[in-house]
Fold:
Amino acid sequence: MSSIDYAEKIPNNVNIAGDRTLQRALEHWQPHFLQWWHEMGPSDFESADVYLRTAISVDAQGWAHYGAVHMPDYRWGIFLADAVADRRIGFGDRMGDPAWQQVPGEYRSTLRRLIVTQGDTEPASVEQQRLLGHSCPSLYDLRNLFQINVEEGRHLWAMVYLLHAYFGRDGREEAEELLARHSGDRDKPRILTTFNEPISDWLSLYCFTYFTDRDGKYQLKSFAESAFDPLSRTCRFMLTEEAHHMFVGETGIGRVVKRTLEVMKELGSDDPARIRAHGAIDLPTLQKYLNFWCSSSLDLFGSEISSNSAANFASGLKGRPDETQYDDHNLRNASFKILIPEGEQDVPMLNALNEVMRESYLKDCEIGLKRWNRQIERAGFDLRLTLPSSRFRRSIGAWAGLPVDPQGRLISKELFGKSLEDWIPSEADRAFVHSLMKKVVQPGKMAAWIAPPERGINNLPVEYEYVKLH
Ligand code: BYC
Structure:
């Protein structure tokens, strides 16, 4: 079951050949996907040999094969984690019932909407990162970018498979729309705001993969609990790929910090102007990028108080990440304290699940901060990087549009407007960071603003030629 059939036009482990209608529909969508990749995927690197990993089976041991691939030839396919025998619903009002192998009619439109929203983020991120290859800090980083891009493309396939296989004609129409909306497009933008933000420099890429891909981890984990078994199995396999994306973010920021500290030591100074003049990114600028991408990603969890979250949990569509770690899986009698601008409120737990998830997400985000701060402390500097308050710069939920500082204090609109430049990247900060973004493609060489990684990929040396450009 877990081995993947690569002899098929669309590699898969779900026997799509056994369903001619589905196979035909997906084979019809495939050239549209490839055309989208050609137009909206990484620009100008189609003939490069990229050292990529490809899934060969879905079990924990040895699912990945590494080798040089031209990205347009990557074998995008449909891979579901193995079925769990006699799987039961693990939460909500129908807990204990058999998991669903088909979509119950009453949840059809909600489930479709959730799958479309998830699916929409995947190609969006590829579009956002489209031009980054031209300013890569090393071949190692270039390869990681492309690995992420092809995997996000595969995650789109994962959602399109569900739409085609379980939602009939509306599903097929939604699959076309996933290729028609584009990140930042004025008329047809992507659904969620973060996925319309430009990612035009590598510091933004590392922050995006640290913060936004981590939202992906939480959303996918909550779908992995879903009563709709094909969604659960799809998301369980996607999570194995997602881990690498967050690794790129965490180590990328760590390498920026490392390089900056080297420059600070060399100069014997933490003066941002001198650090910048030396071609490195000063830590206050990094802090602004962290504030920007963290606050943007916090919106992706939805409103603090949400009837959607209550309905999705009660009906079994969307659980909490790692649902089994909790004792109460019904939550009808539980409540949760939430701070909203009017004061602290006791909210039925079911309606507070977006906030519960946001809080555990923020705890997970702290892990990298601790690591980077340890680097700074060891280098003997006082400055510490922090996460902004979950009330800062919100566009969704109870704090949307309110003037709140990064420490979470409500302040005057005027002070907020004046100070925003000190908290998130200003035009000048972005221009400076952009000025550092020069393409470095000699094997093993790194741009001056980032330290080399500790090790290469798949036990190869850092100096390996991970992308052969032609
Ligand atoms: N922007 O009750 P509410 C990833 C809408 S990242 C715009 O507050 P709910 C990845 C919401 O849709 C993971 N609109 O929240 C990472 C709803 O509209 P409708 C992506 C927003 O519904 C990196 C209304 O406001 N996956 O995979 O409980 C690279 C009221 O909603 C936003 C998912 O998000 C927003 N930020 O939860 C590549 C999972 N927030 O439906 C990939 C699928 C809310 O009333 N999505 N709204 O018209 C969901 O589970 C939920 O839709 C949300 C919102 C968590 C997004």
